[in-house]
Design brief:
mainly alpha; flat
Length: 210
């Protein structure tokens, strides 16, 4: 915390856009902690919360966009040659590929909330040739929710935000499960709304006759 706070004192908002960019391409940087600290600093008039959100979001989105393009253009040869520099080994790519097969593009949406997953989702999405439009829609939504969550933790909970960060990390799997169920229900209803509407009309007609 002291190290990140010192960075803010020296470089201000630049820490957010460069730090979140670095974390998004799988370089070590405590993104959640930085956003929470900057959110807290906005309560004591040292930073502006709107600028904190904007700089954090831009850094994260640009970083994941870069990883997607690297994966899309360079594919598995990049992983084999340079993956070790961003902790991206072939075994990790294979594991994430299986997760994509199981959960589909929803994995992009929730990956921000899983440490060790969000750093590599862009690379693997590109390698698997996930359509650019699909990737950026899911990525932008997930990134926005992620940034808002951690900046608001610092803004609302002030000096106690570090304790809350531990709780968020501890129960992130539960939150992901709930989010995945919600997204699944939404997609099911979206793709089957005509069938669902027809069933509801049939039931209504039977109830009326009865």
């Amino acid at each position: 915390m002291e190290w990140v706070s010192n960075l803010f004192e020296q470089y201000g908002y630049l820490v957010l856009i460069l730090g979140l960019f670095a974390e998004s391409i799988a370089l070590p940087f405590p993104g959640e902690l930085a956003m929470a600290i900057s959110g807290h600093m906005s309560t004591i008039a040292e930073m502006n919360i709107t600028m904190v959100i904007v700089y954090s979001y831009v850094g994260a989105i640009i970083g994941t966009a870069v990883t997607y393009m690297i994966g899309y253009k360079l594919g598995t040869p990049f992983v084999a040659k340079y993956g070790k520099y961003v902790f991206l080994k072939q075994e990790r790519v294979e594991k994430l590929s299986k997760w994509f097969d199981r959960y589909g593009n929803k994995l992009i949406l929730i990956s921000y909330f899983v440490p060790g997953l969000r750093h590599f989702t862009g690379y693997v999405s590109g390698i698997l040739k996930v359509p650019a439009r699909t990737f950026f829609i899911y990525n932008c939504i997930g990134g926005f929710v992620w940034v808002m969550l951690y900046t608001m933790i610092g803004l609302i909970f002030g000096a106690k935000f570090e304790q809350l960060l531990h709780l968020v990390s501890r129960y992130s799997i539960l939150a992901i499960g709930i989010a995945a169920i919600g997204v699944g229900i939404f997609l099911y209803v979206k793709h089957n709304r005509q069938r669902i509407a027809a069933r509801l009309r049939t039931r209504a007609q039977k109830s009326h006759k009865a």
